[in-house]
Amino acid sequence: MRYSAKHKAETRQKLIEKAGALAKKDGFATTGVDGLMSTVGLTGGAFYSHFSSKNELLLEIIRQELKKSQDLLETNLSNHNIEPFLNLYLSQLHLNFPALGCALPSLTTEVGRADAEVKQAFSEGLARIHQILNTQLSNPQMAWATIAMTVGAVNLARALPAGERQQALLTACQNMILAMAKN
Amino acid sequence: MRYSAKHKAETRQKLIEKAGALAKKDGFATTGVDGLMSTVGLTGGAFYSHFSSKNELLLEIIRQELKKSQDLLETNLSNHNIEPFLNLYLSQLHLNFPALGCALPSLTTEVGRADAEVKQAFSEGLARIHQILNTQLSNPQMAWATIAMTVGAVNLARALPAGERQQALLTACQNMILAMAKN
DNA sequence: GTCTATACATTGATAGAC
DNA sequence: GTCTATCAATGTATAGAC
Q: Which residues in B lie closer than 8 A to residue A155 (C-beta atoms)?
């Protein structure tokens, strides 16, 4: 072969990362194959030597993005104190740069419309996130509630114009999670 | 004119409702003009005698869908008891029929990518929902937290395969909201 | 492995007949 | 107000040259 297996693996990896960022920013459905390939300096046809279909790409995006979320969660979570994590997750920075942020607020809705294989990968990634959070909180139900509230809050806040209402929503969710954690 | 103003208004209304249902089910971006028009027995070109663009349609969908959510919320909420509402909102029925359900889990992510006008309409609709919930709960922060958690829970649950994990998430959110409401 | 070329469907939107 | 026809652009995917 004219290109090494290593080169192929690197290209594939680069594609998954670029596609993940584009999908988190603009949505997976509206991220076109040609546009994606051109961001790594390749042409559209080459896509299919790395993935059998767009759906396989989505599967890999979900796997790797949720892995990244797990790592970030572990990094910012310690000593049964979730406040540092909340400050980051519910920040303006996270709202304003979805391409760099957690996949859950950006891609969950589209996963809900995807096939069973994608949902299964999503389920496994989410389970691990729940597991990590659970080690730091009082009980499993608290962990699920925290995930749902933070993901919902970021999603809703992004759909609001920057301003008082947006901030009130974020602050309220932060306060209520911290209040829950104290019981 | 060959068609009455009443006829035109009815057609427009029918389009907004159909498009809302399709967008909640499949996403707004992937809902095509031709496909939409054919569901009401018209052809694609006629769309633009009712809306100046797809964006104007999205604006109307958000306005009317959030109004519907407000009405449903008022109907199922009474006497400072949110349990009946939670039973409905976090039900398998709501998960499985997004076209008939609340617009928030389905359309919020896309509103986050829409223009300022759409976000403004979303903000006003969400404010009213918060207001309604706030009259039945102990404080405004509780109302925001409840909205974020329920919307997040439905969104996440739809992205999971039906099963234990999905049910654990729903049950946990329901329990935690009820526990919050008691304080 | 990546290229170009292509097939074919579908997108949002416009023009002009009726 | 709705039709048909059409536009340019873009969508996913495949075939064959290099």
A: 108-109, 112, 151-152, 155
